[in-house]
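=== RUN LOG ===
request id: a7f3
mode: sequence -> structure
chains: 1
length: 466
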Amino acid sequence: MEEAHPKVFISYSHDSPAHIARVLEFSDRLRADGIDSMLDQYEVAPPEGFPLWMERQIEEADFVLLICTPTYYLRVMRKEREGIGRGVAWEGNLIYQYIYEAATMNNKFIPILLEGAREADIPTPCRGLAYYRPSTNAGHEALYRRLTNQPATPKTVLGVLRQLPPLERKVSASPTTSGKDEFTDPVDTSKSTPSNVVGTQQQFGSYQLITLLNVEKSGQNVLSKSYLAKHIPSGKNLAIQILNTQLRGTESRQFLSEVQVLVSLKHPNIVPVIDGDLERGTPFLVMDYPLYNSLRDYHPQGDPHQYSNIAFYIVQVAEALYYAHRQNILHRNIKPESILLGVNQDALLTNFRIPIIAHHMQRFTVQSIYTAPEQRTNQVFPASDQYALGAVVYEFLTGEQPTDITLSSIEAASRHDTIFPSVLRAKHHTISIAIEKVLLKALAKEPGSRYTSVLEFANALNDALR
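=== RESULT ===
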């Protein structure tokens, strides 16, 4: 049987000769990889005329790739001057019609952000869709997997259902009175070798634990432990994060429901959560094994970043957060350790804190300087994530935390509620007024005084850093 080549049509605006050439190069690369890519540069003069030709291309294509730029946005949204960009405007009408007839369900149109493009350039009817940055090798591979239906983690063969014996019921003689949850660690690392290698007999549910990857702490309290683990039925190596709490009854069902919301997040700058479950009441999350270090690993505290690096990282994180916020998902745990750097130094967001886990852990979580003031009173908004990202930027710009003091975590968090971050330019003369203005707005104590979205903050910061 002859191999089927996915058929793709590329919709774009003629912004400049350089942009036209970049789009052609992108299309040629797709064709070299077996994707039947079509764009107007391959067609001299279609006999039916370009309007009908465009309509036929969109109708016959398996996928329509939208090369999003500020100009493309204006023309699709009909905000360009009358008579300019009529081809893109016509394609935009067709896109609107297809999405309308599909009752907002979309499997055909894919926003593409080439180098320098931003999420704000995506036309309104396609906002919230998974988009791709094929200018990097990782982004191109992610798009190629989408076009060829080759998931990074294919499903394993479905096994036979097992009949399990009933569990013996254990009744505690008296309820726990300590008021503090104890973390039942599946591995007693105090008895293991000095390395992070876990004993070969250590098992957690259907996972064989191999290596301790990370211990997440708040003060002296352990919040979670992450392991490289082998999924015994499939033999696949994955990362498993075991959370320091116990869930029962309705809380277990709430956890499983919230995990599925995390699983639904599909964004090139978010580490995908594959699954989540409970093992004897202990919740855990399963992710692709990330072969990456965090921003904290690459840039220890006290090490200021170059402006270009900050802009590159923060815009990507903000786009991931903005995408999650549009799905009504808050992160609640933004900090340098929650931002990984991928193959091409792309920022990858991880460590989302779902509501049921945030609720359970709040009683022994020491609030950090990345925690927004309102979050300490259990009020969480998208602007709370923006505040935390602003605190990360402050630290990376200056090499100092926003409080400008060296205290314990609790003292720092308490003081941070009552003082405004030190004026940047008073201590760091290389920082411009524009940067200071953007950052202090993101760090405003009142959520309503911050930017209307985390993406607006990132774009303002990017402009100020230039």
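=== NOTES ===
Residues 307-326 form the longest helix (20 residues).
The longest strand covers residues 207-218.
=== END ===
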